[in-house]
Every structure is written in structure tokens, then in C-alpha cells.
Amino acid sequence: MRLKKRFWRIGSIFGDMRMERKLIAVFLLVVTLPLAFIGYISYTNYSLSIEQKTIVYSTKMLENMMVRVDDYIEDMIRITSIPAYQDDIKQNLIKSNNYYEQRRQAAGESGKSIPEDFNMLLSIQRGIEGNISFINTIKRGANSVYIFDQFGNGYFQAAAGGIRLNVKESYDDWREAIESSGGEAMLFSTQKYTSNLQSEKFAFSVVRKVIDKSLKTLGVIAVDANISVIEDQITELDKVTSGKSLIIDEKGNVIYDSDRQRISTNIQDDPAVKQAAGTKGSFYDEQDGEKRLYIYTTSPNTNWKVMTSIPVSELTKDAVVIRNVTWIATFVTILVALLLSTFFSFALTNPLRKMMRLMKTVQEGDFNVQFPVKSRDEVGQLGNQFNRMIVRIGQLISDIYEMETKKKEAELQALQSQINPHFMYNSLESIRMAAELNDDPVAADMISILGKLLRYSISDLHEEVTLSREFGHVRNYVELLNYRYPNRFVLEIKMAEQLEQYPIIKLVLQPIVENAIYHGMDDSKPFMTIGLHVEAAMQGMLVRIKDDGVGMDADTLERLNRSLSGGEEAVPSRKSGGIGLKNVNERIKLHYGISYGLKVYSRPKHGTEVVLQLPFEPGRETE
Questions:
Q1: Cα(599)–Cα(592) distance, integer angstroms
Q2: Which residue ranges form the domains of the chain, and what is each CATH number?
Q3: Taking the model in full, what pTM does it have?
Q4: 451-485 pLDDT per residue, tens
Q5: H-helix segments, 485-566
């Protein structure tokens, strides 16, 4: 309801505005709304297109990057399988295991420490480190390769990145993790360590048992990956997407991240990580109050998940430029449209204002004005019509003056002719008195009834009378007919006492009764019965006029009812009597409305019933 009132107020304000302001407002709306709509659609579609293309492109880059990382890890796994095929490495490990086994047994038997056999150790060390040097020449990019014998003694060769200072602790962790792995290689997440160069390093590792042909464990080989391989690819990805990226394993351990702040930490409880369900996809999330687009994919080989987050502001910066340009163009266009609309609105409404001034002059009574027509457009045509209207008004004033003069003359003549009906009534009364004086009561009664009928029907047909008066008129009519046709017609009236004073327009029943007598009389019967019944029903007041005359066939009845309903014109016919009924029907509809009127029911040899439907208002009486 409030919204409706608000719209009504806006419409009222707009309706009260001057025409030039309306035109300016319409011009501005016609220009502004399409531009704003086009700008909004362009901005939205462009932003959506950029987002979709970024997702597709970034996903492809992430997948390609993970393929390269998978290839790198696959090479590391192949490196760890080299000792299984190099007898030299296995022989050196066997020598190392036998040497330290013999020393342990000898120390156990004597309880004393046995001097080191430096020649043997040097031979073993040179042999294994030579093998490590050979491995490093096979695959560049490995930070360090560690080979351990069965007792945890490590052999390694320092690479450019240095070796772990915590080699012993790392070996214990690796050995425990691969204890039940058989001979399969295991991938370890990125770990932070301090190298022998006293610098902090990050590396992820591939570790495998070294076994002989009898599946006996000879030692362990571990390869530390060069984290820079991933770093270079992540840097390239972040440069293209203007985002930040990270790689995590399936347990939530960070392999690498762009900021290098969370490497080797566990972030499985991070909200963004929790939302990255499935193997790949994208979603929006807020980080530090900034909305970001997250795109992720998963390696099918390592189950490592790479995720990049791109600020939405970076995605839409080009779209924002388009939006701003569109708004600037819109404002400039609105300004130009305002100037043009102001000029054209005043140019269009100026002739109308001139016409309004002329109309005010005419309103004051001066008809000696004329609108100057300068064009053939709608305003010029309106001016022509205005000029013709002024001329026509002058003619009408002259005609009205002449008509008023003639009307006064007609009123004088009407006053003079009012004596004619009274003269007729007086003449009939004189004839009736003469008939009574000459002992002719029948003629006197007939003349008296005729006078009543004439007096009743001579006044306004739209005048309302009571039902009792209308029925009295019908009685007089039937009584007069019975003088002409002695005892030929019987009138039966049934009406509740409370309906006698109900108003009805006059002369609606007598034409129906007359129609029934003259078109339904059956010469084979001694008399004809006409019944008038009145009842109050749901649909209104019903007056039924029923006779026991000859009736009418179905075709005639259908044409008559269709004529009464307005379907076709009534055709004068002796059988149908449609003219009188249609006149009564039209008078009822004109007076009471189209919902009321006549309906005819009839069967051959069974008489005819005319139902007159009128509105019923309880308690209403004639004025």
C-alpha cells in the first residue's frame, strides 16, 4: 500500500510538471538509462569473461607446472634406483657394512675400541663418493645425494648448495619412514635445514632402500631436490597472474609458497585449504580484508596440490577502466543531452504556450483571436483545428441564441396547447354523462375505462409507479377488452402485499398482455386465462405473464429470444409479436441496466410465458 502511494505521489508530481520539464526529463531518461544499462552489461560481461579466461589459463599453467615438477620428481626417483643397478655401489656398501659389523663384533668380544682402518675407510669413502659424483653428473639440479650403509654411516659429496648439518637426525627420520616400504621410493615434504655453509636451506627429498638381489637391505639412498626448480616456475606463474601461489602435500604440509613464510609448515586448518576440495576448481575468499580468486589443481602422481590466489582487483582492473570510461562518456552525453533537450523542449512547447495564452483570451470571452500557423506538423495542425474551433464556437453561439429564441416561442405554444388533453378528457366525460342520461351504462363504463387508460399512458414513460397501479392499468385494459369480447378473457393476479408499493416504470406490463391476447388467442377455447405472478428471487424481482394460448414453435421462440438479447433485429410477424416485446425490453435495459429484461418460454398448444426480470431492493418505494 505504501509503495502504491509512493508511485501515486511520483506520478502526481510528474503530471503537475510543465511540458518542457517533462520533455527534458524524458530526454535524459531515454539517454541515461540505455547508456547506464549498456555500461553495466559491458562491465559485468567483461569481468565475467576475464574471470573465466583467467581460471582456464591459470588452471592450464598450474597443470603444466605440476607436470614439470612431476617429471623432476620422477627423475629423482630414477636417481634413487641407480644403486640397484650399480654393482660398484652395492659392493662398496657391503664393504662398509662388513667393516662396521666386524668392528662391532670385535669391540663386543674384547670390550676395547679397535683402531680405525683408515685405508679401508678411505677406499670405501672414495668409492661411494665417486659413485655420488657420477650420479650428480647424470641429473643436474639435485642439491645433495646421500648414501648410508646399514649402520647409518653416511657418504656424500658437497654440491653447490652444501650438505645438511643434521644428516644423522634426517637419516633416523628417513629410515623409520621407509622401514616398511620395501624397495619403493618415498617422497618427503620440504624441510628446513642448515647447510655446512651456515645458511638456511629448503629441500624436499626422495628416499629409497638399497637392496641386493636377495632383497637384503644394504643401505639407504636419499636425494635432496633443488627447491629453486619449483621457485622459478612459481615466480613465473605469479608474474603472469599477479597473484601468490603455494604447493602443499596431501597432509597439508607446505612444499613451497611465494612468500617463503610457510615453507615446511602444516596449514591443513587454513580456511582456503579446506575449501579447495576435489582435484581442481576455483572459489572466492577474503584474505586480510581483500577478496581473492583461488584456483587449484592436484598432481595425479604425487597428490601435491598447487594453489594460486589472485586479487579480484587485479582481475577487474581493465574492466574498471572500461567502467570509468563508460561513466565519463555517460556524464558527457548527459550534459550534451541536457543542453539539446532544453533547447528542443522550449522550441517544441513555445507554440503550445502561445496557444494557451490564446485559450485564456477566449475563456475571457474574446473570440477575435487566431493562432499563427507556421508549419504543417502536429502543432500546426492543432493550430488549424484551434482556429476552426473558434470559428465554430462563434457559429454555435449564434445558433444557440437562435435556438433559445425559438425555444421560448415553443414554450408559449406548449402552454397554449396544454388545453388540448384537458379538452379531450372533458369531452370523454361529457360523452359518458350523456350515455348515463340515456340509460346506456355499458357505453358509459367503456368511455370511463378508456379515459383512465388514456390518462395513465399520456404522461412520461420513464416515470416510476407502484406495481399495484401498473396492475390496475392492466385490469382496466382487460376489462375494456371484455366489453368488446364478452367474458373472453380471465385475468389472475398473484402478488404479495409487501410488493404492491414496489416501484416500476409504467406501461411495461400492458404491452406484454396485449401481445399475448392478439398473438396467442386460441379460437378453439371458450376463454383465455392470463396470469400475472410476482415473486422476489435471488436474481431480482420476477414478474411472470403466462397465457394458455396457441404458443409458438421452437424456431420462432429461438428467433424471438435472440432478438431480445440483441442477437438479431426483430422481424415484424403476426406470430412472434417481437416489436412490442422488444420495445419493452429495451426500455427496461435502458432504465435498469443490461442485466435485466425479458425472457420468453413457449410450446405449441401449451401457451406462452414471458418472464420480466427487474432489480429488487427491499424497502424501496416510489418517490
A1: 16
A2: 81-226 (3.30.450.20), 462-614 (3.30.565.10)
A3: 0.48
A4: 777 777 765 556 788 999 999 989 988 888 888 78
A5: 510-520, 554-564
